[in-house]
Design brief:
Helices cover about 20% and strands about 40% of the residues. It is an alpha+beta fold. The chain starts with a helix and ends in a 10-residue tail after the last helix. This is GDP-mannose pyrophosphatase.
């Protein structure tokens, strides 16, 4: 065990959604909501379009392209990852899903945060609204043909958008099972 692991954590700041912790020589953030978990939703529409969202992110002071995502348990602490994912998908994109499957859970930035992210595959999609996020969000929904999604993302990157690196993992998960075998259409 690292000596930093034996030191008691000290909270130096706590806000509504995050706290800053010092433990030994480490400084890191923790989510304050239940579980400290976010869900990224990998979703493809019935006409084979990948759902992406665009929004301004204050920490980056830039517009980003991401897959739909949100905090698990921020509204209802007992909410499952799957239920949270479908709720966020609908809120952000206007699409809902018949089924949500957790594919993988892991750290987002293990040197800077204790937050974990769950990749969730949403299937059986059906359009139910306009999307765009809640009253505090200004989200633009992009429905991009799967065959050209990677090229579209590169174009957005070249145009100055910040791209969440997890996008590439999400695209891979559209085409593959976790063991690397091709996914059946």
């Amino acid at each position: 065990m690292d000596t930093n692991d034996r030191d008691a954590p000290r909270v130096v700041y706590e806000g509504k959604y995050q706290r800053m912790v010092v433990r030994g020589t480490w400084e890191y953030s923790e989510r304050t909501h239940a579980g400290g978990l976010a869900a990224i939703i990998v979703a493809v529409t019935p006409d084979d379009r990948v759902l992406f969202v665009e929004q301004f992110r204050v920490p980056l002071q830039a517009r980003t392209i991401e897959m739909p995502a949100g905090l698990v348990g921020d509204i209802d602490a007992g909410e499952s990852i799957e239920v949270s994912a479908v709720r966020e998908l609908e809120e952000e994109t206007g699409w809902t899903a018949e089924h949500a499957e957790v594919l993988l859970v892991g750290p987002t930035s293990s040197g800077a945060s204790s937050e974990k992210v769950a990749f969730v595959r949403a299937t059986g999609l059906r359009k139910v609204g306009a999307g765009g996020g809640d009253a505090s969000e200004d989200i633009t929904v992009h429905e991009v043909p799967r065959a050209s999604a990677a090229a579209w993302l590169v174009g957005k990157m070249r145009a100055g958008y910040q791209l969440d690196a997890k996008l590439w993992a999400g695209l891979w998960m559209i085409e593959h099972e976790l063991d690397g075998t091709p996914r059946a259409p």
